[in-house]
Amino acid sequence: MSRDNAEFAEFFAASWDACLRAVAATTGNMTLAEDQTAEAFARAWASWHKVSRHPAPKAWVVRAALNAGASWWHRRSKETALSGHDIAAAESQGTGLEAAVLTALRRLPARQREVIVLRVLLDLDIDTTARQLGIASGTVRAHLSRAMTALSSELTPTTTTETNR
Amino acid sequence: MNHDENPNDSPLSRELRDALSELATPERPPLAAITSRGRPYQRRRLAGFAGLGVTAAAAGAALTLLLTGALVATPDRSTAATPPTAPTRSTSTNTTTGTVVGPMQTAAFILTSNANGTDTLTLTTNQMLDPATLQQALTQHGIPALVKTGTYCTSNPAPPDPVSAGVLSIQLPRAPHRMVPAPRSPAPGEVQEMAAHTATVINPAAMPSGTELFFGYSSNIHAVFTDLIYTSSYTCSNSP
User: Is residue B1 part of a domain?
Assistant: First the structure.
C-alpha cells in the first residue's frame, strides 16, 4: 500500500462514523446518508492529494456528500422508497434522545442545520465553517445563534449548567 | 444566551454531540469498495480532468454527460466562443461527420442532425450550460425534452432505459488529440468512462410514446444527467 493509500485508509477508518453522522444529521436519512458518504469518500480517495491538504478534510467529505447533484443517479433507484419519508426515517433511528435531536435538527432551516453540523458536530471554527459554506463569518454566527436558540427550546440538556449559558 | 463564538462547550452542544454519537450507523464499508467507487473519478482526474467524458451507469438507466472540455479540440473556436444564449445555425453539409442539416452550435454544445434521422449532441467545453438554449435546440430538432438546472426529474414507474431502448448511444472519438486511457469494460457496479470527443447520438424515433428526454444540469459537478421521463407524469426534486 502506498503512503497516500495508507494515509487515506487511516483517514477513512477514523472519519467514517463522524462524517456519516454529520450527513445523516443534515439529511435526516441514514440510508441516503450512507450512500452519499460512501460516494464522498470515493471522491476524496480519487483526489486525496488535494483533500489531504484541505484544512478540514472531514468537512470536505461532508460537503461533498451533501453536494446537491453528486449522487443523484445513485439515489435514483432508492427514490421510491425514500421519497417523503425523511423525517420518519430520522425518527426511526431510535427512540431516545438521538431521535429527538434528529427531529429537532430536521425542523431547522437547511443552512442552520449545516452550520450546526460543521460548527458543533465537526468542531470547525467560525471562519472555516464560513469558507466551507461560502458565506460570511457573520452570517455563520447569525445562523448558529438562531439554530442554538431553536434547539434549546426543543431539547432540555440533561447536564445543564447555567453558568455557561 | 450567547451561542456565537464558542458554542461547543455549552451543555446543549454536548447534548447534541452525545446524542448523535449514540446514533446507530451501518458498518463501515470495506476500503476496497470505496476505492473501487472512486476509481472512475481518479481515471478522469489522471486524464487531465478534462475533455469530454460520457459516463453511463453500468447497471442503471441514467446517463451522465460530463462537461469537462479542455481535451476537446474546439471545431471552430470563433464559433465556439459564441455566448450560450446566442446559438448559431448553418445548413451546410459536413461530409466528415455525416451530418447534413441544421447544426446548432453554442459555446457549451453542438447539436447536429444526421442523415439517418438521429441527432448528435456533443457537449463541447467547460462553459456553463444554458438550459433554455439546449431545450430550444432539442425542440427545434424534434426531440421532446425537458432541460433544467439543479433539478432532477424522474417518472415512477420509470420509462425504459434510454440506452437499452436505443434512444441514446455513445460515439467514441474519431481522432483524439491527446492520448487518454483506453476505455475498458467496467467492473460490476462500476461506471463506465469514455474518452474525450465522445458524442451522444439521440434517436427520437426510438423514444417510447408519451416520453421525453430529461436533461438535468448540475453546475456543482459540471455534469448533465439525462434519462427518459413520461411527459404527463414526473416529479422533480432539488436535492438528492
Answer: no
Strands B109-114 and B119-123: antiparallel
Is A165 domain-assigned? no
pLDDT tens per residue, chain B (240 residues)?
444 455 566 788 888 888 887 777 888 999 988 988 888 777 766 654 333 333 333 223 344 444 432 222 223 322 222 333 334 444 433 333 344 446 666 666 788 888 888 988 877 644 566 788 888 889 888 899 998 887 778 887 878 877 778 888 765 443 332 323 333 333 333 333 322 345 678 899 999 999 998 887 766 555 566 778 899 988 887 643
Choose among B69, B57, B49, B65: nearest CA to B225. Answer: B65
Residues 2-31, chain A, touching B (beta carbon < 8 A): 5, 9, 12-13, 16-17, 20-21, 24-25, 30
Residue of B73, B76, B74, B86 whose CA lies nearest to B176 = B73
Count of domains for chain A = 1
Q: B190: burial class by Cβ within 10 Å (0-12, 13-18, 19+)? A: middle
CA-based nearest distance A54→chain B, Å: 18
Please determine, for the modelled complex, whether the ipTM score is greater than 0.85: no
Of A96, A126, A148, the CB nearest to B12: A148
CB atoms B19 and A39 under 8 Å: no
Cell 447534541 appears where? Answer: B16
Helix and strand numbers (H, E) in chain A are: 11, 0
What CATH number did the domain enclosing A152 receive?
A: 1.20.140
Q: Could you give the strand order of the β-sheet that contains B99-105, starting from the edge strand earlier in sequence?
A: B88-89, B99-105, B109-114, B119-123, B199-202, B168-171
A23 close to A65: Cβ distance less than 8 angstroms: yes
